[in-house]
Amino acid sequence: GQNIDQPTEMTATEGAIVQINCTYQTSGFNGLFWYQQHAGEAPTFLSYNVLDGLEEKGRFSSFLSRSKGYSYLLLKELQMKDSASYLCAVKWVRNQGGKLIFGQGTELSVKP
Amino acid sequence: DTAVSQTPKYLVTQMGNDKSIKCEQNLGHDTMYWYKQDSKKFLKIMFSYNNKELIINETVPNRFSPKSPDKAHLNLHINSLELGDSAVYFCASSHYFRDRDQRYTFGSGTRLTVV
To answer: What CA–CA distances, in Å, run from A65 to A29, A52, B100?
Structure first.
């Protein structure tokens, strides 16, 4: 199938670092996206990985290992405003029209 | 100068009614999507259009009918609404899937409540 697994909930402290993992089926993999969604709002794009390695963007970094079917989103210097749901989404080659399949999302709570 | 705009933002209606949600994008994208987000926050694709042509049609009741008059607009019409249709519906747009940068831009969502 096209399962995507990520933890349902995580809690971290302001100023700390948190890593949100995502695993997916490797066959036909063609790209992975991370989105952030605050409660009651639209998802917004954070990062895109299609090759192995780390992509860094300010406080946020995303890592991909295609052979392991594994990605993580790393959030540094956590701020209260980072409390949100983080969605991992994958594109597979055989997917009609290149649709993205989303994971269930990881609800991150940042505590003072 | 909103990139992807959806209307209405909230929709409360009775079972059996017919309703429409409209979506417009000004990003110059040629592909648009409808996603449904249920109470467990799972985002599931319903439809996708590329340059007015339907390219993705998931297993969705035929009470749902998308229409794309041009590549900047994608509307969703729902007939005979049922309680289970209550959800948040997101419109999104992107470049064509064969382009490398296929990041989606989402609209603000329409929270549909069927009573």
So the answer is: 11, 5, 18
pLDDT band at A94 (very low <50, low <70, confident <90, very high): low
> What is the nearest CA distance from A10 to chain B, expressed in angstroms?
16
Chain B nearest-CA distance from A33, in A, is 8
- B83-113 tens-digit pLDDT: 999 999 999 999 876 666 788 999 999 999 9
User: Among A79, A41, A96, which residue's Cα sits nearest to residue B58?
Assistant: A96
DSSP state of A94: T
Contact B60, A103 (CB under 8 A): no
Q: Are B31 and B93 in contact (CB under 8 A)?
A: yes
pLDDT in tens, A29-79: 889 999 999 999 999 999 999 999 999 999 999 999 999 999 999 999 999
* C-alpha to C-alpha distance for B46 and B35, rounded to whole angstroms: 5
* Beta carbon pairs, A and B, within 8 Å: 59
CB B90 within 8 A of CB B105: no
